[in-house]
Structures are given as structure tokens and as C-alpha cells.
Design brief:
Layout lengths: L1 E7 L2 E8 L2 E5 L1 E5 L11 H4 L6 E5 H6 L3 H6 L3 H5 L5 E4 L2 H6 L4 E3 L4 E4 L6 E4 L1 H11 L3 E3 L11 H26 L10 E6 L5 H12 L5 E4 L8 H11 L8 E4 L5 H9 L4 E3 L2 H7 L2 E4 L2 E4 L26 H9 L3 H27 L3 H8 L8
Helix pairs in contact: 6-7, 7-8, 8-9, 11-13, 12-13, 13-14
């Protein structure tokens, strides 16, 4: 259940209550694709870096180790050791981005595994069953994620199919939540808004899925080829039609600046692989902008990654040491930088919430919206 506490223009400060804990919003979800954050970070580390929600991937866990294995191990939370809320995405995005051979029909999608090429079928019911086996707090509806730009008529037909699939997802989840063997009988369902970059399709689709009175609503299919300006325009178009009393999730976005802009436009929840992926290549986010720790200028730099940061890494290690670890090919370089970046994102969300609590978000936004994205 979502509770709106305060609003400053479109920016929202809220709480999202789940069976596995209450999430303070706006919030960032740390991406643990295959039940682990890449870079040697465990679920137990997440508590030290202010994480509230862990996100895992339905498609990847279905392939390895298998969702039935996770079910037998007591569900994703027991399996990983994470005791907070978990969101599982439906597998839709991976089916459309990783599967080289796929055949989309009304029933669902037949595709080849990116691991060994074996044929897999996934539709709304299969996605719900996998996510129920995982026992996540929040399950995402199975949708079709289109590439941008998409042809108008294709996008229109795809939206209609995604809506039909959503009704099937809801019916199957209701059935699964009533079973005695279900790990989390209080599993929530979020619907996903699609429509490529067409404002009319986005608005109409949002109106349709809002009628289902789901636990939350996501804007999907962005950050997949369109410009940043187009992404912001779509958020602005869809936002007035999203239920005010439900949590709003922008999927797969993005840079610290993207997040700040989306909060400014009324979004509550985010996820992105960027902080961990960039960290593994030596790129650290700071209050001054993005810093490339591979640069030779850090060879003798005894400062922390970010002098304003109080994360476990910045309290103990210098830029020079982490620069050395990257040059030496040590795994510790990735772990330390991933921990810093994830802390930076979670701490940014905490500062945004504080600014909203104190009624000064607009000033915070004006101070950091450009500064936070620059490269040092």
C-alpha cells in the first residue's frame, strides 16, 4: 500500500508498505540480476549501503539455478539472505533484448535461451508462476518491451496485447496467492505502461491499465533508444493519468541526473544496472560528477573517491589505492567501487527525501540537476 506523505510541485514523498517491510520513497532498487550484485557484493553488504529494495531477474533465475530450485530453498529472500522487500521483473525485457530467435504469439513468446540455445516458452501465466516460486514481494506483469523507435501500428497492437496479458497475469497471481504451497501469498503485482514514444498510445494505455487497481504502476520501454528529452516528455504525458494513491516506478533508469529529473516529474521508484556496471569499469559517481579512477592522475591521490561521501569505502580507502587495484586487475577494485556507487545512489535518494520533508526539493533540484551528471 502506498501512502503519499507530502508533495512539492510534482515531486512526491511517500511510504510503500509491503509484507516484507516499509519502503521510504523516492527510492532506488539495487539490481541483483542473478540473485547477486555483480562486483562481489552480497545481500548482507546491502544493509551497509542504505539499500531498501533488492531487484532480481525472473528470466535469469528461471534459467539458472531454476525457479523451482529457489522455491525449494525457501524463496529468493532466504536463498540470498536479504530480509527486505524484493522486486522481480517479469522476464519480458530479457526475452526481447537477449533472445536472438523469438516468436511472439497471443499465448506468449517462444525463444532460445541465450545460455545454450534450448527452446523456452514464456507467457503471462509462466512468468507469474516463476515469480511466485521465487517468492518475491513484488512481481512485475509480463509485457512486450519494444525497441525505440517502433512503428506506430506495431506499437498500438503491442500495447493492446500487453493489456490482455496483464489481465491474465492478475488472474494467475490471484490463483497462485491462494495456494497452500505459495511462499508469499501476499505477493503484489505491478502493471507496466508501454507505447513507445507515442504520447497518445502511452496515455490511452495508462488509462486502461489503471482500471485494474493494481498495487503499483511502472513506466516501461524507456531508455531503450530514445533521446533523454523524449523520455522526459513521455513521463510528463503519462504522469497525470497514473493513480495518485499508487506507487510509480520508472524501469531501468538511469543516471543520477535522470533520477532527479524523474522525481521532479512525479516518479517514486527506480532501478538501473548503471551504478554497478560503471563501477566495474572504474567509473565512480560523486557529488562533483563522474570520476574515472583508471586515469593516471589518481596514481598518488590520497583523497577518498568523494570527499563529501561517508560510505564504508570513502572512509577507509584512497583514490590511489583503488586506481592501483584496477591496474593490477584485482577483484577488490570492482567490489569497492560498486559499493561506493550503490551507496551514492541510495544516499542521493535519502537526500532527495530529506529535501522533500523540509520543503526545499526545488532548491535541491536546481543545485544538482546539471552538476551531478558532469564528467570530471
Amino acid at each position: 500500500m502506498y501512502k503519499l506523505i507530502k508533495q512539492e510541485n510534482n515531486a512526491r514523498r511517500g511510504e510503500f508498505q509491503t509484507v516484507h517491510g516499509t519502503v521510504q520513497t523516492p527510492a532506488f532498487m539495487n539490481v541483483a540480476t542473478a540473485a547477486a550484485i555483480k562486483g562481489g557484493v552480497s545481500a548482507y553488504d546491502l544493509k551497509d549501503i542504505k539499500c531498501q529494495v533488492m531487484l532480481s531477474n525472473t528470466y535469469h533465475l528461471h534459467l539458472r539455478p531454476g525457479d523451482e530450485v529457489v522455491h525449494k530453498m525457501g524463496g529468493i529472500r532466504k536463498f540470498t539472505g536479504w530480509d527486505g522487500p524484493v522486486l522481480t521483473d517479469s522476464g519480458g525485457f530479457q526475452v526481447f533484448s537477449l533472445a536472438k530467435l523469438r516468436n511472439i504469439k497471443e499465448e506468449g513468446v517462444t525463444f532460445a535461451s541465450h545460455i545454450d540455445g534450448h527452446k523456452i516458452f514464456m507467457g503471462p501465466e509462466e512468468s507469474m508462476r516463476i515469480q511466485s516460486n521465487l517468492g518475491s514481494t513484488i512481481a512485475m506483469a509480463f509485457d512486450e518491451c519494444m525497441e525505440n523507435p517502433a512503428e506506430y501500428n506495431y506499437a498500438k497492437n503491442s500495447c493492446a496485447r500487453t493489456t490482455r496479458w496483464l489481465y491474465r497475469c492478475k488472474a494467475e497471481m490471484d490463483r497462485l496467492n491462494a495456494l497452500e504451497s505459495t511462499i508469499n501469498p501476499n505477493q503484489m503485482l505491478f502493471g507496466i505502461n508501454q507505447g513507445s514514444t507515442y504520447r497518445d498510445l502511452r496515455i490511452e494505455h495508462m488509462k486502461q491499465i489503471a482500471e485494474l487497481d493494481l498495487d503499483g504502476y511502472a513506466i516501461g520501454g524507456l531508455a531503450v533508444g530514445e533521446s533523454t528529452e523524449e523520455m522526459y516528455e513521455i513521463i510528463e504525458a503519462v504522469e497525470p493519468h497514473m493513480p495518485k494513491n499508487k506507487i510509480r516506478y520508472l524501469m531501468g533508469v538511469g543516471t543520477p541526473g535522470n533520477i532527479l529529473e524523474a522525481v521532479h516529474r512525479g516518479v517514486d521508484l527506480f532501478d538501473c544496472v548503471m551504478p554497478s556496471r560503471n563501477a566495474r569499469h572504474g567509473h565512480a559517481f560523486t557529488n562533483e560528477g563522474c570520476r574515472n579512477l583508471l586515469n593516471a592522475k589518481y596514481t598518488l591521490d590520497d583523497q577518498p573517491i568523494d570527499p563529501e561521501c561517508d560510505c564504508p569505502v570513502c572512509r577507509k580507502h584512497s583514490r590511489a589505492y583503488i586506481h592501483h587495484l584496477f591496474k593490477a586487475g584485482e577483484m577488490l577494485a570492482m567490489r569497492l567501487t560498486v559499493l561506493h556507487n550503490l551507496y551514492f545512489y541510495n544516499n542521493l535518494m535519502e537526500r532527495i527525501r530529506k529535501a522533500l520533508d523540509e520543503g526545499c526539493f526545488e532548491a535541491f533540484y536546481n543545485t544538482y540537476s546539471e552538476k551531478i551528471n558532469k564528467r570530471i
